[in-house]
Amino acid sequence: MHVEETQQKVNKAKKADKKQRRCLAIIKSDCEVSPSAEPTPYLAVLNVGLSNGLTEECLLTEAAATGGKVIQVVMLPGKSYCFFICASLEDSQLIYEGMHNISTIGQQGAVAYLSYIRQLPALAGKSEWNKPLPRGLHIIADFVTEEEESTLLRAIGEDGRTSEGTGSLKHRNVKHFGFEFLYGTNNVDPSKPLEQSIPSACDILWPRLNSFASTWDWSSPDQLTVNEYEPGHGIPPHVDTHSAFLDPILSLSLQSDVVMDFRRGDDQVQVRLPRRSLLIMSGEARYDWTHGIRPKHIDVVPSASGGLTTQARGKRTSLTFRRLRKGPCDCSYPALCDTQQTKVPQELHASLAAQAITLEQQNVHEVYDKIADHFSETRHTPWPQVSEFLDSFEPQSVVLDIGCGNGKYLSCNPLLLSVGCDRAQGLLAVGRRKGQNVFRCDCLVVPVRSSSIDGCISIAVIHHLATKERRLAALQEMARVLRPGGRALVYVWAKDQRKNDKKSTYLRQNKAVNKERTTEQQQRQKQHQELEQQLSNNNPLPVHTNRTEFQQQDVLVPWKTKDEQKTTYLRYYHVFEEQELENLVSQVHEVQLIKSYYDQGNHCAIFEKISKNSL
Amino acid sequence: MKLSTYNFLTSVAIKGVKVGFPLKLTINKKEVVESEFNPTFVERILPKLDWSAVYGAAQVAELTEDIPAVQPENIVENELLLQKLHHLLFEIDVLEGQLECPETGRVFPISDGIPNMLLNEDEV
Ligand SMILES: [Zn+2]
Fold it and tell me: Phi first, then psi: what are they for A488, rounded to 5°?
């Protein structure tokens, strides 16, 4: 028995050796790889790759299970093999021993064969590195000498304003000269120059740029941000705010090389920034591509022979030189342009007024009818401060929920007589099934006796109305049905989804951004491309990207259905600026504002109908 | 639709309508949903209701033997009446029927227990 088992093992190993050799021979006919009997940091997976439907994720999971650390997976399109670059020899050994002839990641659960190789084939580097640089991107190698490097480091080491180490900044040290770059708003305050301007040690740099500078907006910068990156630190992909800075933006790399990623939509280009080189981002590269650095200890870069190799990062200091714009941006790259994305043309107000009813019909009522059930599933937990308001009424008060949706607030306080109304039949039916009192109407024409109601709530409703007049009319209608002394609570979505630098739940649910896997800008650009394919282009309004900050007040917010079609519906919203709700309430007759507050990305107001006696 | 809800509904928003209340109720199908009787609840809700519409509802629901045409004064002590009001206002559920504007005759259908009070733009 024991002998048999041993024999089987030997047979299996022999079979694996044979397979390994055969696969290597096939790969060799394809590209130059030389196997190594001794462990190397490079591993080839010989019999499975992209052409077999293998994903990088699957590979990384398998490798992680062995305890070995992978720096990069190299997969080539259309090939049935792929490569690992491992963090160290030990990691490489762990992966080899844990996966070779063991891992069943092949087609139909076939076992994978691995081999150490001396170097990655030249082919592997091509797809990643042989792309042209983004237009307007230049790298000037050896822009400063080693001597100048030390002089510059000394000069910036002495002074400058240090950023508070919060948020994404916790990973690196940041200093500012000229003006402070505010990471919260990604902007500068031109009215607040810093005492310390750019150190004069930097003056040697500008004459060297004469040949370029003829086409630039500026010839010397007035703002410098210094970032110190330890190995493993990075910066999420971003574009420098268009309206904050002129074209171009310069970045001098000191102390260590690094690889920077440039992206535009699905396009991605990796760019090596050697120590003491100057990066120039101008035109398209400055305005239409995001740039970022992945938080890694080791970069994978092209080797001298054309393959790939690894390069450990050292401590790197970058000097980013910019010049303040002090006005709107006039670039021709609207996708990431804050000026062009936030501009509310005068005509928009006129067109909203003209189309209000059609817009609300198509982009509010019809959408809610279509998404009623799915929407209702996502709306089950009452907001605590709304419940609190409902609990503040005497027992047996009559409370009307205008725009009650699925009626989640109608059963919050069973001591009240709660009645709800909404336009969306599908949502009313959900509430009705739960035994609630509901009827169908429009929030502008509420079929309820005047002065008959003790309390009124309107939660996330009037931001669906397309003009100020209509929003005001909805509040006036609430005031009409309230009895004197009766109180109303209104919630509307806030344009600003942060308070005191804290993100609302809406933003916090954007996990990819919060974990710095991507940025809002990246997501906007991606959605922009997706929607262009999916929807007709004659949307009257800009389309908002979910779980990102609002760029403008009147927007269409996508709702993706959960079914297989994944249909995108666009809901119209007017998101409120600070004080806008209070101002609106102040224009309603017969009421006074009791309280207003910000709650989870909403502006909220409580008002009371003035009793006749106090008039 | 419970008859307590009915008590609040009006067609006053229709162009030219002066009062629009009480609406003319027709019940084609109803059911009785039993609920716990709480005399205090009924008693405290009453001042918020319009008695003419309470009585009107009782007429349509054929409960006029229980509900007087004029609101009695000492209703607090009349627990039997409170119980009957509880039944009328909170237990009778209109599933199918209609509400009609007393001035224009505009009909608002009630189906699956939900009155549709939506007006067209040109009606208001
Ligand atoms: Zn711009």
Answer: -130, 150
